């Protein structure tokens, strides 16, 4: 059984994809903590950060690096919280590595 994020990669369920390349994809979170909340994932299914092959980890970082300013610009955020929940105990609900990019605004009073 593939993860819900693999189903997004394969176009089996809809998502608002905002960036895609050979190995990574970025899409809007379905239950955003703030407008513009974006997830960046490797296309290949990896449960935890250390399961991601080194070359894909580099691609993942490049996409995060590209998306942080794009997300900030899109919603005129003051900053972003950029985070991985790595493992169930840490709050990871979807067992497919994903980086949260959560726009932050002056006085918003808290992060993820
Ligand atoms: P986690 O708690 O695993 O770090 O975060 C999982 C995130 O995936 C949550 O913020 C949740 O809203 C988001 N999410 C779960 N299912 C879907 C889905 O089907 N589509 C999209 N776009 N986001 C999802």
TrEMBL record:
Q: Which residues of the full protein are shown?
A: 1 to 112 of 139
- GO biological process terms on file: nucleotide metabolic process
Q: Which organism is it from?
A: Natrialba chahannaoensis JCM 10990
Q: Motif Histidine triad motif at which residues?
A: 96-100
Q: Where is the active site?
A: 98 (tele-amp-histidine intermediate)
A Gene Ontology molecular function term for this protein is: catalytic activity
Question: Which residues does the UniProt record annotate as the domain HIT?
Answer: 4-111
Q: What is this protein called?
A: Histidine triad (HIT) protein
